Amino acid sequence: MTGNNYFPREEYEARWKRVWDAMRAKGYDHLLVWSRGAGSYDRLGNGLWLTNFANNGTGQDWADDVQMGAWTFSAVLFRDGRAPELHSAQPPQETEYAKTVCGELIVHEPSLITGLPEYFRKHGIEGRVAVVGDDVLPGLYDRRLRSLTPQIEWVTDEWFLLEPQRVKSKREQEAFRTAGDITTHALAAGMDALIAGETSAEAAARTAMEIMRRGGCFSRIDMHHGAHAERFLLGDMLYGYDTSAPKKGDMVRGWIQGPIFQGYWLDPGRTAVCGGRPTKEQRHILEGATEVCKAIIKAIRPGVTPRQLGAIGHKAALRYAGDEIDLNLGIFGHQMGTFYGPHIIPAGDPGALEDESVKQGTSANERMFKEYEKIDEPYEPGMLIAVEAFMTHPGVGMSGLEDHVLVTKDGCEQITNTPFYL
Question: What is the pLDDT of residue 56?
């Protein structure tokens, strides 16, 4: 049933075809895609994109080493050239399956983890099975699943769906435009509150209201200020906000993250000064981060590469460099979809990728070579890009902002348009 869905069945069928094409290119006959829902969104997107299904509930289930119900989780199976199957353990009387789009729904009561191996044996599924979501299923369940499927060679391919999802359809672009409009108003409401001296909690509440009243959703809202906002990009580690209020002259920052509309993820942000009267030093880093983003966005068009955009952003950033100013050169952006895309816009030209690979280390701050894989692949119309920049001046504050653009046939379209607070 898809009559009341945002996307028609034909949209999903086009997605399935792209997945099958990608499977054939890699020599995969079978693909299993794990998702986790039940109030969590960070590992929900792939299953939602494939079948319009999201597990309901109030969080990840307690580990069950006997029944192994795994009701929080679901799996999409591609096999034998068919429309994909949705495998779940949630009882139909407790779950809204009516909007699901798939070839067949298979409910494994009481256990998805033991029911799925039985299904594989019944249908003669053996050999190599590619897996997306190996980082989703808890070890307890994964070990049991593998022990019950000795005929399967599980092949982890976590980034496999990124290519089929990379270029957005016209309907997906409309969803992103709606998401952009929602966050434009919501982030402005939160920033206006911080500038007026309201508490971080009040600013977050105003942001949330604008998202929810427009039919959107979020995963996290960060609103913070002062010394904490200079040291840390995001707000309170648990909630993203607290009940403290900024003082006039404090730098304040707001950020929204989440599946804003129809499960599509955006993460725009802004920085300003409480009272709206920045000092010369504050204005310098506010303008610096803004100009970096503007320069990159102005250059986005089909055919340009992430490496080229990184060099443009770096050139713009150097105009605001100083002895005490940290340009925060890590990345200048990344792709977006149903979650953060790992392929980045580097902050500057990293040089030969062979040289970049040797820079890897055990530190969490080391750049991941895999993120650079596509920095020389040109952007195409229909791709969505997040553009971001940060600058820090000790004792003054940290300035950061982020916007999102769609690549068009002759340039780009900015879909998040919260004002710059200079």
Answer: 85
Q: Which residues contact 394 (CB under 8 A, 6 or more apart)?
A: 230, 324, 326
Contact 176, 264 (CB under 8 A): yes
Contact 220, 184 (CB under 8 A): no
Could you tell me what percentage of the chain is helix, strand and coil, using 3-state DSSP and rounding each to the nearest 5?
35, 25, 45
122, containing H or E segment? helix 112-122
Instruction: Give the count of beta carbons closer than 10 Å to the beta carbon of residue 164.
Output: 19
**Could you read off the pLDDT of 66-84 as tens digits, one per residue?**
777 788 899 999 998 899 9
The CA distance from 49 to 163, in Å, is 13
pLDDT given at position 1: 44
Question: Mean pLDDT across the stretch 30-37?
Answer: 96
* CA dist., res. 259 & res. 162, Å (int): 17
Between CA 46 and CA 52 the distance in angstroms is 9
Question: Which parts of 80-138 are beta strand (E)?
Answer: 85-88, 104-107, 127-132
DSSP per residue, 276-336:
S---HHHHHHHHHHHHHHHHHHHH--TT--HHHHHHHHHHHHHTT-BTTBB---SEEEEEE
Q: How many CB atoms lie within 10 A of CB 213?
A: 11
pLDDT at 65: 72
| Residue 132 DSSP one-character state | E
* H/E run at residue 411: strand 411-414
Q: Greatest CA span in the chain, whole angstroms? A: 71
Nearest CA-CA partner of 77 in 142, 29, 14? 29
Query: Strand pairing of 73-79 and 152-156?
Result: unpaired
Q: Give the whole-angstrom CA distance, residue 212 versus residue 207.
A: 9
Note the pLDDT tens digit of each residue in 263-322.
Answer: 999 999 999 999 999 999 999 999 999 999 999 999 999 999 999 999 999 999 999 988
Cβ-based burial of 181 (10 A; exposed 0-12, middle 13-18, buried ≥19): middle
pTM value? 0.94
pLDDT tens per residue, range 344-400: 999 999 888 765 555 555 443 344 568 888 999 999 999 999 999 999 999 999 999
- Give the contacts of 147 (CB within 8 A, at least 6 positions apart): none
The single-letter DSSP state of residue 5 is S
Q: Peptide bond preceding 350: is omega within 30 degrees of 0, i.e. cis?
A: no
